[in-house]
Amino acid sequence: MARGESEAKQSHGAAVAIWSVFGVACLAVAWVVVRVTADPEVPDDPFGTSEPHPGIEGPLRGLSARGCGLASGPRMGGPAMPGPVDAKAHLERRGYVEAVSFGEPQTLPLIVPGDELEGACGVVAAVATTSGFVERTDVDGQTTLPCDHGVILTPVCGNEDVAIQGYGEARVGIYMMPGVLPDDSLPPDVVLAHAEAVTLLGASGWTPVPEAIHGSFTGGRLDDLPEHPSGGCVAYVVAGLGVGHVHGSWMGRMVGQGNAPDRFLTGAVVCEHSRRTEITGAVPGTGQVIVARPYRVEGGPSVPAARAAVPLTMLGAGDRLPMPPSLDDRGAP
């Protein structure tokens, strides 16, 4: 009996020790939760490299140049290169509607008449077959290069013909952007990129102001965009040509990377006291065209559907840029 009582006491002691450790761990977790939730105004990062405003980076990371990322993700049982189905899905997510479906393969090089886009803006999509290669397209002196192998999505406004260069065969489709009209003062690529951003950010409840300003790159860096007059932060969409591959960083932390060789669509956050997204290009650029437009960041996602186009109203030098309500800078040290 003495031996049995000793074993029982040892078992009881071990159980007490285990429950004591568990209790201490629970108290530690509770302390951490209280510390994190007690004061939401306290920045998580003392160096200010975290998000400047909660939830602002997620939607902006969804911006990318047209025609990039079509081949990403698993492709079980399918070809290694993107096809017409991928191009169609990519364009429809960005707000385009089909005007001419992808037809039978055609021999390259070829000329695609722009009759279907008379008085409107859209994209002529060329998707190479497995034995073909699309090298570039030319429209009214503007060249478009592929981002993903085998696909070129060429921006067109009006009835301009599209010359598709390459070898082998490709299938061609035409997609229109509803509500967007030709603008003689801006390249079709920039006009359509901003129209795409309305749809891409509209799924998160964001809306743009109609007014936009010209931006510029100096030494491979996007020159500073205006701060909000009332302080805090403001979100911009920036699209352009002529600066090569574009990268974005927030206080040294990478927040965006563009893979297109000749165009970009990205987001930028500008806060007071020179806290801003740093946008850099691969080359200083010649003949660059940069357009930036502020966005109203509204709470909660909306139904992911194409938003009505908001035409760009370009402001001149010295014009006041209307701003949406400012956002609190929660990451400032």
Q: List the helices and strands in order.
A: HHHEEEEEEEEEHEEEEEEEEEEE
Number of strands: 20
The secondary structure category is alpha+beta
How many alpha or pi helices? 4
Radius of gyration: 26 Å
Major sheet characteristics: 9 strands, mixed
Average pLDDT metric: 84
Distance between the termini: 67 Å
Portion in beta strands: 25-35%
Low-confidence spans: 1-12, 14-19, 21-43
Helical percentage: 10-25%
Overall geometry: globular
Task: Write the SSE topology.
Elements lengths: L1 H37 L18 H5 L22 H10 L3 E4 L5 E2 L2 E3 L8 E8 L4 E7 L2 E3 L6 E7 L4 E6 L1 E8 L11 H15 L4 E2 L2 E5 L1 E2 L2 E2 L10 E9 L4 E5 L2 E5 L5 E9 L3 E7 L7 E8 L16 E2 L19
Parallel strand pairs: 11-20
Antiparallel strand pairs: 1-9, 2-9, 3-8, 4-7, 4-9, 5-6, 5-8, 10-19, 11-19, 12-13, 14-17, 14-19, 15-16, 15-18, 17-18
Q: Can you characterise this structure?
A:
The protein is of the alpha+beta class and 333 residues long. Helix content is 20%, strand content 31%. The chain has four helices and 20 strands. It has helices at 2-38, 57-61, 84-93, 188-202, and strands at residues 97-100, 106-107, 110-112, 121-128, 133-139, 142-144, 151-157, 162-167, 169-176, 207-208, 211-215, 217-218, 221-222, 233-241, 246-250, 253-257, 263-271, 275-281, 289-296, 313-314. The strands form four sheets. Strands 10, 11, 14, 15, 16, 17, 18, 19 and 20 form a nine-stranded mixed sheet that branches. Strands 1, 2, 4, 7 and 9 form a five-stranded antiparallel sheet that branches. Strands 3-8-5-6 form a four-stranded antiparallel sheet, with no helix packed on it. Strand 12 (217-218) and strand 13 form a beta hairpin. The protein is globular, with a radius of gyration of 26 Å. The termini are far apart. The model is unreliable at 1-12, 14-19 and 21-43 (pLDDT under 50).
